[in-house]
């Protein structure tokens, strides 16, 4: 059974929630594969207007086996 890790990432944008989510996905996909996520949208409101869109993502991904790497839980060589 594969090991799955969940992390929380927060993206922000001055223009839209979609842009905030795209920032999260761009950053996460640079180092992670097989990403699935749950997105929550919030906003910072100033004087009755949205001043910043925020997306919080709980990103799940499969942990790949790297026992051959020193410090990754496997024996050192």
Q: What's the topology here?
A:
Elements: E1 3-13, H1 17-29, E2 36-46, E3 49-63
Antiparallel strand pairs: 1-3, 2-3
Description:
Strands 1-3-2 form a three-stranded antiparallel sheet, with helices on one face. The chain is of the alpha+beta class. It has one helix at 17-29; strands spanning 3-13, 36-46, 49-63. The mean pLDDT is 84. Strand 2 (36-46) and strand 3 form a beta hairpin. It contains one helix and three strands. The longest helix has 13 residues, at 17-29. The chain has one domain (3-63): Dodecin subunit-like, CATH 3.30.1660.10.
Q: What is the name of the CATH architecture?
A: 2-Layer Sandwich
Overall number of structural domains: 1
What is the fold named in CATH at topology level? Dodecin subunit-like
Strand order of the largest sheet: 1-3-2
Largest sheet: 3 strands, antiparallel
Radius of gyration: 17 Å
In total, the number of strands is 3
Keywords:
single chain, 48% strand, elongated, 3-stranded antiparallel beta sheet, Dodecin subunit-like, 77 residues, alpha+beta
């Amino acid at each position: 059974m594969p090991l799955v890790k969940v992390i929380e990432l927060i993206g922000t944008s001055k223009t839209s929630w979609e842009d905030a989510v795209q920032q999260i996905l761009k950053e996460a996909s640079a180092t992670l594969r097989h990403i699935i996520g749950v997105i929550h949208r919030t906003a910072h409101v100033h004087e009755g207007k949205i001043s910043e869109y925020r997306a919080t993502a709980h990103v799940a991904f499969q942990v790949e086996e790297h026992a051959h790497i020193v410090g990754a839980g496997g024996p050192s060589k």
